[in-house]
Design a protein that fits this description.
By secondary structure, the chain is of the alpha/beta class. It has a domain of 156 residues: Rossmann fold (3-Layer(aba) Sandwich), CATH 3.40.50. The chain has ten helices and seven strands. It has a seven-stranded mixed beta sheet with strand order 3-2-1-4-5-7-6, with helices on both faces. Helix 1 packs parallel to helix 5 and helix 2 packs across helix 3.
């Protein structure tokens, strides 16, 4: 069985149930949403970076998504726009909602992931996926058929996937790297650099652990900041008392850690904080003193976009570390 990074065995049952309820509420509140503007915005963003750094549109690139998630709607949307794309994720995706798929999730990722997947599918995802495919089919003028083999299930730190997908010109990953164990990232990052087009671009947007959202508590998701909530946890709880760790694996990498890791194998073309100052309204002099070992940059960064290009001394495609051609 492949252990999903979306849950931890050590999390107390009470905290697990509380998180499930919060996530179910999110799914229910989003159940009627059939607006795909966020997916189109994602396509537009990656197309912009492809044109800027590769000199061609995203539809002219071989593209890889690392961590498409249990709901691979972004990958499906990009495929529907004509992008040559494939992806890899540790969790088994649901494409049709068949009993065989749910059984596969249970066998591959365990009962907790299976329950979450079934609940999400019947609360929201089934209708959303149907509407998504209908919209893409309408745009294309013919029925969209997604080849299941585009969605690989496996460990992105292994070399097998990258050996099969050498020469990618544009690779992206959003809100995933923070869930990959640091030791796996140390293996994965150089393999990615060696496997991709030497002039290609890697887009990575991790949620930095030291930000207010970095602990992945549902009640500290950015959309909750304007709500009046009776929160169980305090601002930056994960850096302070850490009484209720989120039910997901976090590698706890800081912004400085990501810079150090990436700079060993890539040129950092751009680094952009998505929401500068996010969480500053919750900072008090007392909390600032308690967290004095962290800079303001670390505490207020949260989501950060890195645009990376392999260093020139990186091994060329076809000569991955430890892989024979």
């Amino acid at each position: 069985m492949t252990n999903s990074k979306s849950s931890l065995k050590s999390t107390p049952t009470r905290d697990r149930v509380r998180e499930w309820i919060a996530l179910a509420r999110l799914s229910i509140s989003d159940a009627g949403n059939r607006d795909f503007s966020d997916l189109q915005a994602s396509y537009d963003l990656h197309d912009q970076y492809a044109r800027k750094y590769l000199g061609r549109p995203l539809t002219s690139c071989k593209v890889i998504e690392i961590g498409y998630g249990a709901r691979p709607n972004r990958l499906i949307w990009l495929f529907g726009q004509g992008v040559d794309i494939a992806g890899i994720d540790l969790d088994q995706p649901i494409l049709r909602g068949s009993p065989a798929e749910f059984l596969h999730v249970f066998r591959t990722n365990g009962w907790e992931r299976a329950l979450k997947t079934i609940g999400r599918w019947y609360i929201n995802e089934r209708r959303l996926r149907s509407a998504l495919l209908a919209e893409l089919s309408r745009q294309r003028g013919r029925t969209l058929v997604l080849p299941p083999e585009l969605l690989a299930v496996g460990d992105a730190s292994g070399e097998e996937f990258w050996t099969r997908h050498r020469g990618a010109g544009y690779i992206f990953s959003e809100d995933v790297f923070e869930h990959i164990p640091a030791a796996d990232l140390e293996r994965m990052v150089p393999v990615i650099a060696a496997s991709m087009d030497p002039q290609g671009v890697l887009y990575v947007k991790p949620m930095v652990f030291t930000g207010i959202c970095g602990g992945h508590h549902v009640e500290w998701y950015p959309h909750t900041f304007s709500q009046q909530l009776n929160r169980l946890t305090e601002p930056w709880e994960h850096l302070r008392r850490n009484r209720h760790p989120a039910n997901t694996h976090l590698n706890k990498l800081t912004l400085a850690d990501y810079r150090k890791l990436f700079s060993r194998h890539f040129d950092i073309l751009e680094e952009t904080c998505v929401n500068p100052g996010l969480g500053s309204q919750f900072m008090t002099p007392e909390i600032r003193e308690e967290l004095k070992q962290y800079s303001d940059e670390e505490l207020f960064s949260n989501g950060v976009i890195f645009l990376l290009r392999p260093l020139r001394h990186t091994a060329a495609p076809g000569s991955l570390p430890g892989v024979s051609s």
